[in-house]
Design goal:
Blueprint (H helix, E strand, L loop, with lengths): L9 E5 L4 H12 L3 E6 L16 E5 L5 H7 L5 E4 L7 H4 L3 H22 L3 E5 L12 E2 L14 H21 L2 E7 L1 E3 L12 H10 L5 E4 L5 E2 L1 E3 H13 L7 E3 L5 E2 H12 L5 E4 L10 E2 L2 H7 L9 H16 L4
Parallel strand pairs: 1-2, 1-4, 2-3, 4-5, 5-7, 6-15, 7-12, 8-11, 9-14
Antiparallel strand pairs: 10-13
The chain binds nicotinamide-adenine-dinucleotide.
The site of nicotinamide-adenine-dinucleotide has 26 residues, from helix 1 and strand 8.
């Protein structure tokens, strides 16, 4: 499938009202696809698909139900499987079992539907959480059934490992082309604000804009992460399928990292706030450095650009979005 081959093809996006999924849906529409968005709005927002609602078909329901998944994926020639329960570490750390069981249930339903309908190509979102905490700083796409996944996201990481393994079986038994991607830290406007359960960037943006003082940051602040805007993550996913990528799992992230302290400083500077920053060493900060080895991604994408939204611009977009949607204490 080349760039234009999405034209008039029916493409389903599970989790299509979510952060990454809504950008995937937009990118697919721009490339001429007929897009089916499947979501239960448990975390995704109706406002994320408001601008495209007349151009998509919305199939609303809970993918934990195998019957719903079968009906929802009917007719899809390509499937982007992005639905999952994913919150920040504040949630994951105390809900490993619940997160694992929910994601397992959704994945089982979706994979059974895929096995039945046999779309031509599937892209499934795994996660960098499949990697062990004690691996190298720059993470290569190694096999992941040795040791435990990232412990802060233990249940989530196992569900993603299981998903990857089930997909390998699906590939072998049903001859379906499958791309498995392992996104790292993806951020952007369109996140649902879920208080202490949010990911790092949404939580920090909210605290700083709400005028909290001091702003308490988990860990030393010296831990380093790589951040990619959801629009770029979505473009890459769509492009990988356009290029018929179905090789080994591929990281989506960048090798360059920023410390959490510098991230906080950037959000404060861009927003014009200057709260005191306190680092709470009693809170988990996860592994020290998370950098994405991008060798495989670069090989898969050729000269297709990975990062088109610089971090500062992404933060600006997020701050603007927060002010419009949640300003005045909404
Ligand atoms: N954002 C990141 O940093 C990141 C990193 C690694 C992996 N991922 C993975 O990428 C995918 C997309 O992530 P995101 O950040 O857009 O998450 P998100 O939470 O914004 O989107 C997930 C969507 O799935 C929907 N959903 C959840 N359970 C459902 C169910 N039972 N039935 C129907 N819909 C359901 C939610 O309502 C939401 O719209 C997920 O699989 C996630 O695990 C994300």
């Amino acid at each position: 499938m080349n760039h234009s081959d999405y034209k008039n093809r029916t493409v389903a996006v599970t989790g299509g009202a979510g952060l990454i999924g809504s950008f995937v849906a937009e990118e697919l529409l721009q490339r001429g696809a007929r897009v089916i968005v499947i979501d239960d709005f448990s975390k995704g927002l109706r406002s994320n698909i408001e601008a495209i609602k007349s151009d998509i078909e919305l199939r609303e329901g809970d993918l934990e139900s195998a019957a719903f998944a079968r009906a929802a994926l009917a007719g899809a020639e390509v499937v982007f499987h992005l639905a999952s329960r994913a919150y920040g570490v504040g949630y994951s750390a105390n809900h490993h079992l619940e997160t694992m069981l929910h994601n397992e249930q959704v994945n089982n339903s979706v994979l059974a539907a895929i096995a039945e309908h046999r779309p031509g190509h599937v892209l499934a979102a795994s996660s960098s959480c499949v990697y062990r905490d004690d691996g190298p700083d720059t993470m290569r796409e190694v096999a992941v059934f040795e040791g435990e996944p990232e412990m802060a996201n233990w249940g989530y990481g196992w569900a993603k490992r299981f998903l990857e393994q089930k997909l390998q079986v699906l590939v072998r038994e049903r001859s379906i082309q499958v791309a498995i991607v392992r996104p790292f830290n993806i951020f952007g406007e369109r996140s649902r604000w879920v208080g202490g359960y949010s990911g790092a960037i949404p939580m920090l943006v909210k605290r700083i804009l709400d005028g909290e003082d001091p702003v308490v940051v988990w860990g030393s602040g010296r831990q380093r992460r790589n951040y990619l805007h959801a629009h770029d993550c979505a473009r890459i996913m769509v492009e990988l399928v356009a290029r018929r990528y179905s090789d080994s799992p591929v990281n989506i992230g960048t090798e360059d990292t920023i410390s959490v302290a510098d991230l906080v400083e950037s959000i404060c500077r861009i927003s014009g706030h200057s709260p005191r920053i306190e680092f709470d060493l009693s809170k988990p900060e996860g592994r020290f450095i998370k950098s994405a080895d991008s060798t495989r991604l670069r090989a898969a994408l050729g000269d297709y650009p990975v990062k088109t939204v610089p971090l500062e611009e992404g933060l600006r977009r997020m701050l603007g979005w927060y002010q419009v949607n949640f300003g005045d204490g909404n």
